[in-house]
What does this fold into?
Amino acid sequence: MPYDYENFRVEREGDVLRVAIDSTSKMNALNRTMTDELLDLAVSLHGDDVRCLALTGSDGVFCAGGDVAGFAADADPSTEMRRGASLLHDAVVHLRRAEVPVVTGVNGPAVGAGLSLAILGDVVLAGEGSYFQFGYPRIGLTGDGGSTYFLPRLLGLRGALDFALRNRRVAAAEAVEMGLATDLVAADALDDELTAVSEALAAGPTVALGRTRQLLAESFERGFEAHLAAEADTIARTARTADFEEGVRSFTEGRDPAFEGR
It folds into this structure.
């Protein structure tokens, strides 16, 4: 499907949907139009035949959070903040529930809402020179975009408190050590690595990978027996896919599988 946005550059590269944040606001900040576009983009993943989403920034910046200059112009900041956060959260929910892997390539500052988008990736590639920061305390706000949900799960409660309350600016190498990011990548190799990882995931059994990311995410919300029931239901449904048939056939024939994502 065509994508015509003011704040994102979108390209379809084979089975990968490549998205670059290219905001009309400074530092790739999240403005009102950008939030609307992000929601549209996230919803589209459910009806497209994309097999992997690759999200990165542009011009040495991933996303530095909300458009603070825009906040200053709001006549009713509380109402506008609720509206913006609600739209952002709808987008985050759709990105989290999409049955395709998500890879983020963090090429610069990932702060505030930008941090939320960065750590939403199933695989988070941190380019050298990039950094991660909670950001909200700088302007007297609490977090949104799922940041206060994901941080304790990635860092543990003590680590999340330290990172968020002290508003620590964490460089790429430390982000990998902490668990905020998956791999440290040389800045000039980030684009190639993002492509390689995304293409490898896109060549996999898309339905199985998408459902696996859902099971892993939902494991925090269920009791053990309820989660086992969800596993049984999901593996049974996934056994109806063409990729399962191909996986079994290729295994018995001693060759690599050629998955089609269905």
